[in-house]
Amino acid sequence: EVQLIQSGAEVKKPGESLTISCKGSGYKFTNYWISWVRQMPGKGLEWMGRIDPSDSYTNYSPSIQGHVSISADESINTAYLQWNSLKASDTALYFCARIDSGVTASNWGQGTLVTVSS
Amino acid sequence: QSALTQPASVSASPGQSITISCTGTASDVGGYNYVSWYQQHPGKAPKLMIYDVNKRPSGVSNRFSGSKSGNTASLTISGLQAEDEADYYCTSYANSDTLGVFGGGTKLTVL
Q1: Would you call B4 exposed, middle or buried from its count of C-beta atoms within 10 A (0-12, 13-18, 19+)?
Q2: Chain B residues within an 8 Å CB radius of A104
Q3: How far off is chain A from B79, nearest CA to CA, in Å?
Q4: pLDDT in tens, A46-101
């Protein structure tokens, strides 16, 4: 069974750094891209970026580029989403998803709620 | 890249059918047969309901169907059931260097 298990909820202050994770199991991790999707409170879904775990090639949304970084460690089948300096506007529910092709993702993590507040 | 356009809400009674539209451009919806639809219940992860415009993943009810005409894709749900009440999002491939784009989402209320 394919599973994506995300790290737990986080509460941080503006300016702090944070890394959340997404561990894949039940499939060959390097065969599928992992995407991160943001859902701000009461809002819709937004593709943030994606990584090819086989070579760590990444794409980012123009609205996100430079503010977050996506990485992966194929030795432990885990993808990461990292911020160096959080803002209050980063408060959101973050999902990872395994990309089957294009915009098709049949497996999702359970979501990680990030709250940034002073 | 602009978001795809979906109606904010639709509603219908159990047993009825509804169609949710998703309008993009020739650079996304109209240019590729790579439109997916996701169902999301509050606080839960999205669930893939339709991919490649009109394909249904294993385990998804055949009450869900997808289609496309020009720059507009559509999701039809027939025989509405209470558990269909959720938010529905379309998303389309745009090109190999971009992530794709989501619609704003449609809240389906089963009366």
Answers
A1: buried
A2: 34, 36, 48, 51-52
A3: 24
A4: 999 999 999 999 999 988 888 999 999 999 999 999 999 999 999 999 999 999 98
